[in-house]
Amino acid sequence: MVGTSGWRYPPWRRTFYPPGLPQRRELEYLSRRVTSIEVNGSFYSLQRPESYASWAAETPDGFVFAVKGARFVTHLKQLRDVATPLANFFASGVLALGPKLGPVLWQLPPRMRYDPDRVEAFLELLPRSTTEAAELATHHDERLEGRALTVADAERPLRHAIEVRNESFRAPAFTQQLRKHGVALVVSDSAGTWPVFDERTADFDYVRLHGMGELYVGGYPPEALDEWAARIRSWGRDAYVYFDNDVKARAPYDAVALLERLSSAA
Length: 266
What we know:
266 residues; TIM Barrel; 10 helices; UPF0759_sf; DUF72
């Protein structure tokens, strides 16, 4: 699965998105050119079930959304005492994506250092299926009253990936924890801004490409895309790859180009 982190960016209009395309149809347009999109707005605020349901309806069969976990959990609480915030997140409508729900991404802040006990407590809280997520969602607080979705349309596995940005996580104990819980360690390319971790810790891989040469700006030239395609193929299993170099509209073009390489080699 290859796509972008988000889809609603003004610089993409009249460049990647055709002139005259209504903003409400941008997701529809992009989802016909890539196979997955990472929902970014869920990181900044709790979305609503009707939004997730609308996004699912606008995209083709077989399309998959990754959903970025709430920054209240990862950045404000830094994984401490997050049972209720996790319940709120899963009650906010994530399950309305139905079969189009892919992995949940948990991005940790650069200042957060590795704490084995805190990480373990967090990993143990994560639901492993849509029905577990629905059960967790029933424990939401009063902020979600009247707008919560606490049922799943079917029982499906639920995958999780974690992106760390502090060198202290380069510890065998951390990768062992991830393997124990089947959580993927994100391979992140950030133009040297954050450490690079490249360990297989789950039955799938998750890649975030934040820009080559310049964070969020730099595009990936053909030779770099060739290298990424070869690398992803060598893993030989499910991979979710998202371009986050959105500032100059490189993300959608790079995603389409990488997808073409992977598809031609299939």
